[in-house]
Amino acid sequence: MMALDCVKAASIAFNVPLDEITGSKRSHWIVQARFASIYIATGIFNHKISAIGRAINRDWTSVLNGQRRAELWMRTDALFESRVKSAMALLAPSDVIGRDGEFHRHGSLTERKT
User: Fold this and answer.
1) Per residue in 66-109, pLDDT tens?
2) How many Cβ atoms sit within 10 Å of the Cβ of residue 3?
3) How far apart are CA 114 and CA 112, in angstroms?
4) What is the 3-state secondary structure (H, E, C) of 15-41?
5) What does the domain layout of the chain look like in residue ranges?
6) Angle at 56 between CA 71 and CA 11, to 5 degrees
7) CATH number attached to the domain at 3-96
8) 44: closest CA among 80, 14, 99, 84?
């Protein structure tokens, strides 16, 4: 899974064109899609900050800021969280969202005992 794949999934889930996510505009709806791609790439697929920066045309400090903001929005914005879940489901449904409906790091899912 490449960092650009995370950007493409966010583009679809947030209905924001890919060139807007990688562009220079800072409208809230574009920033949310951009930061969602960062959240998925760093938090779920453990991509390097530099690779994510190259995928979205940003430096490492912008990526770190996006990661922090996305983590905050995941806790406080239900719509943002829902769209991030949709983006992650596009990438690898069974690897990202477990049967319990919770997020899991890539490769760390364990079978849930019933």
Assistant:
1) 999 999 999 999 999 999 999 998 887 555 555 565 655 544 33
2) 24
3) 6
4) CCCHHHHCCCCCCHHHHHHHHHHHHHH
5) 3-96
6) 70
7) 1.10.1750.10
8) 84
